[in-house]
């Protein structure tokens, strides 16, 4: 790259390098208060970089950064488009706000003097997710996928319950299978084209899209990414991972990990292979549409019967992933906008809900649903966050969840699939069932016998309400979310014929 570049021109690589190099530094700092302060400084710095990159892309167009001065496709490229900037903001925002929550919410098996290991793994996961998002090289996607996954396995295993170890192991097995599929798919594409750059792949694959190797490579990529995304029925790792991980880890992963996998899936489909091959020749939507609907209903029905609040929210996440993949299967402007904006809306909603679980668990020592009776009067702010987040999951007007489902319904109607629009509304009624169950227990039942509880510490409530408040703010002010998502959808649909 030119020597005349200023430091601000290197923001794309700083987006990844900052948390990546900071993770091992946590092992050197070690002392808990200083390590936490350092990690907070890093993640908020990453958020500032992400916002700057998104604003620059919206104003001037895509950014291409060539690592080491080698032009692509020979060199590695970091490429920032509208959807890339949008996802960078989502990941860094949630990572920053979740880490802001009081360290007592971590509830890890680590002693305080060893808590630096938690922050090192957290920053490594952030670096991996940001790297997956910004890279324009498919093999780098795999490398950063493994970095984020290995860090995530470690974070999940830090839960206080011994079951967290089994949950981490289950995720490791499924994650390894998914990553293997991704690597095999990348290898097949490379064998046919001799390149790993996404933009170059898109050009060189076009005359070979009918070949068996390319078709198998495409299938391997779709299956591998579907495992990471927890697409029904490849979601078995998710409920235990979210339930037994520390509450802050669940809040972080629920708002970021599956969202980045969804983004990579969009890049593979629209940037590399194109709408014509994926939806007209391969007809992926014929498989993705019914699986999305099954996820929407199956996840919500399973959530209704859960006795643990964390597990309830985990199964709810499976249903919400179904809404995102439904938007993808519609493959039109409104449907895709709904899927992309739900990436943000569900991210802030579910992360806020898991932080609310952290608040309740901090005072109660558990989050069994039936034993939350009467807490609405004793912990009004924690329970209020739970209710507002639940309303967003339902899609009540005025919340962020409504915006997502509105666009999905418009996308279904544009396709002429009235029955799909009806199923979206019907599945939302299932969310009403488990949310109302929580409201009834928390507000309309007598408190359990025992010492009256106080509210969670302000240091836990503030970040919880930053995320929950965002579901209300962006339910009414849709320009920064739905507006950007619509531009991103138009960008993706126009990527290839």
Salient structural properties:
single chain; 497 residues; mainly alpha; 20 helices; 2% strand
Beta percentage is under 5%
Order of the strands making up the biggest sheet = 1-2
SSE topology string: HHEEHHHHHHHHHHHHHHHHHH
Gap between N and C termini: 31 Å
The oligomeric status of these chains comes to single chain
Low-pLDDT ranges? none
- Mean of residue pLDDT? 87
Computed structural class: mainly alpha
The biggest beta sheet, please? Answer: 2 strands, antiparallel
Layout of strands and helices, then pairs:
Layout: H1 11-29, H2 32-60, E1 63-66, E2 77-80, H3 82-100, H4 116-134, H5 138-157, H6 163-193, H7 198-205, H8 212-229, H9 237-244, H10 247-273, H11 275-281, H12 285-304, H13 309-330, H14 333-364, H15 375-378, H16 380-394, H17 400-415, H18 418-444, H19 458-476, H20 479-493
Antiparallel strand pairs: 1-2
Helix pairs in contact: 1-2, 1-4, 2-3, 2-4, 3-4, 3-10, 3-14, 3-19, 4-5, 4-10, 5-6, 5-10, 6-8, 6-9, 7-10, 8-10, 9-10, 9-13, 10-13, 10-14, 12-13, 12-18, 13-14, 13-17, 14-16, 14-17, 14-19, 14-20, 16-18, 16-19, 17-18, 17-19
